Amino acid sequence: MGDHVVLRFPFNDPDKPEVVDVLANVPVDWKEYLKKRADEVQKEGRYIPANILYDEDYYHPESMEKIHKKAEKDS
Question: Which end of the chain is least crowded, N or C, by CB within 10 Å?
């Protein structure tokens, strides 16, 4: 399980994407949602949804992982 982000890849600099949205709920129609957000943001580029996988993360410093996971569990 994971949340989703909407990324915008600018046409003139695709190596520097920006996060447009972070979503806990998936839209029913991604295409319509992306069109709406692009119209609101008013920046050229490619708008792409991506899934955030929480089991593929890394903590720096590593000692923070135990603290963070305990806080998540307790909340």
Answer: C
- Cα–Cα distance, 11 to 52 (Å, whole number): 23
Q: Which of 44, 51, 42, 43 is nearest to 6 (CA)?
A: 51
**Cβ(27)–Cβ(33) under 8 Å?**
yes
Model confidence, pTM: 0.73
DSSP the chain: ---EEEEEE-TT-TTS-EEEEEESS--S-HHHHHHHHHHHH---SEEEEEE--TTS---SSTHHHHHHHHHHHH-
